[in-house]
Request: fold
Amino acid sequence: MLYVRALSVILILMLAMPAAPQPSSPISAVSKDCGSWLEPATELAYDDGKSEIYLPMPATGQRPAVAFQPFAADVPDQAQPVASERQAVYFGGTTILAQTFQADLAGPLGQVMVYLSRGNATAYGDVRATLRRCDAAGYPTGDLLASVRLPEAAILGPAWYTIPLTSRTSLIPDTAYGLILAAPEASGDTAYRWFAASGGATGDPYPGGQALRSQGSGLWTSAGQHLDFAFQTSVRLPRWNAPWLELQAVRFTAFGPPKTQARVSLWVDGDEDGTPDQELTTINAEVQGSRVEPRWTDVLVSDFPPPPWSYCRLDQGQTSLRLGGRTFGNFGGPMAKAQTFRPAQSAPLCSVQVPIAAVPGPVHDAIAVEIYPTDTTGAPAGAPLATATLGTVSSVTPSWYVASFGAGLNLAQGVAYALVLTSTNSGRGAYSWYGDDRDAAGGFDPYRHGQSWEMEEPGGWGALAANTDLAFRASLSSQWWPNAWGDQPLWAVVDAELAVLGADTSSAYQGRTWFINPASPAQPAGEANGNFLIRLVVAPHNNPLPFVADGQQPPSDPGYGLITSTWSTPTAVINVAAYWDRVRQHPGAVGAMNGWDDKSAAGHAGWFLDTNDVAPPHDGHVGTLGRDVPAGIVNYARWDATNTLGNPLVPPPGKIGQPWSAWTVDQQPLGWGDLKAEIDAGRPVVTTVVFWNPIDTGIEDSAARYYTWGPQITGTAQLTTTYPLTFTESFVHGHAVTVVGYRENYTPPTSSLPATNWLIV
Reply:
């Protein structure tokens, strides 16, 4: 049986900053506590007494809580199969090679193969393979999508080698990517050879890309005229007609009334951005709850209406935008613009997204989005097949707007259609439709299965310059046939009237907050010393900021001989690291977790944070010293096989060192603004409470049970609860938590507390 678990009680910390009351204050993001007294909680948004529980994929090494497999076997997509030893190119040390390609199929990257052999070196080292998006010039300098190491011992050759470079990011047809190979630990630039094929002065073995070389400067140059390395890629295509397999129960808990009516729905991520956006199906269920201990309620997935379930899935797109300089996509009044495209499957059209901005000056009116057939020249022709209206756009900043279509238009696979934008009642050129024309004279085409067109009445359609494409995303209606134990998550969302557990507090407590950013920005200006003043409330709110981990103490000991008590600070740090690595897949965080489970990663992080004096020089302290936290965060992220940083354990190749930044904010007024900015930007935060001593008052009404702070304490012997503690300075105990949300200017229900600001942890 497949179970989904969601514990509906977490902690909310309140910053004691009185503010004017407001009628309602929805949660801006999410949060969870990392203490051992709670089971792992899942995400839950709270808004005026309603709750939603998001059930994401758990830690690496565990199966998703709710996951279904919509993919079939890998389908070959791109290839240059000729592997000539005469054309082989050496790499290693500071010499890096890349082969660019453009995907024809949409879907997650499947198997990747390259033809390699060893060269000549005194030390070879592992081969590091990465996948990046290409920039407008066709060079792989964009977002890092996947990264993996091929062990040195596995490469002898010459032979085809499989690189497990699967990416959770789906490839977009006609988008350029770069497959990059490097061996930075090699003793020289001849450690390995990547076999290739050359077309000489007249041919091109692979027209969809090119072979590139970089030699330490970071700049890419051609590896040879009409040269392409030997490679093969595949894409995991959707399994549209997979058989229905028996699924197991959605399971969740509620602390609250004995019985609560809940609406349970299943959601899918149609645009593949990592966030559930479309509801597939729903049922009503009854939740069992208890104030004393969790009671499980089973909701069988077989209780839902039988599949297949329909949703909209991204099919075609061109997302490269030229945001500076001349715009070429202006339309309005007598001017119209169009972009042609070819669907990868036959299906009804759901929606189209386009990036648009208003041009200052002309009159702005509603925008018509239409789908036309095309003639033999590829231009829009005849009458529109379908029409949608966007309304009036007033912003001069380009944003993506969605035009939804009904179920009446069925698009045919491989047939050319034209996406046309007009606004006849607007002034001439009132809007800009953004796209990419930066390589009009070169060989890089942003979208190979179509082109952009323009028309000004009373004239006809004319094609824009070669290699010029307007940006768009076209989604088609699809069907989901779930299979158990898959790789793609299907989210369960619970919407229930849950009891609110409030709190009343009287004591102010000091705290300190650490912000973590894998993009390694400069430390914010204006940092000052001071203290947070916080209060505590226990309430059934979990994390709406998607999928921040909720690791629990104690950690696993990877081999340091750890004393695993008082481990809340490393646990909170790993919650953030796991979020950036697994969920957001930020280029600055890929490999930070090395695939470890949260407890093992927390054990490693604790060494760098010197928790319980595990790392030299030893001074006998217990817990984690506040002064060690920023450097510990940065050093854990930087740690890899090359940069051991004094750690006695050498990490495996999958642990990739990353240059993070971490900084401390103590002063409450400054800290609140910075914390809000971090949460609003989607970045969870680590914070500590110097005195962590919540006491149950025993006061309760029909909606809440109240807690208050006990007396300030300086040691675990005085603690009247079982909450884990950690040092925040060298002289007091406290507790570290992961902050993932806040509520501003809010008064808890049935409470006489003034409106104030709350942290959700």
User: Anything to note?
Assistant: The two ends are 31 Å apart (CA to CA). Residues 314-478 form a domain with the Jelly Rolls fold (CATH 2.60.120). The chain has a mean pLDDT of 69. Residues 568-583 form the longest helix (16 residues).
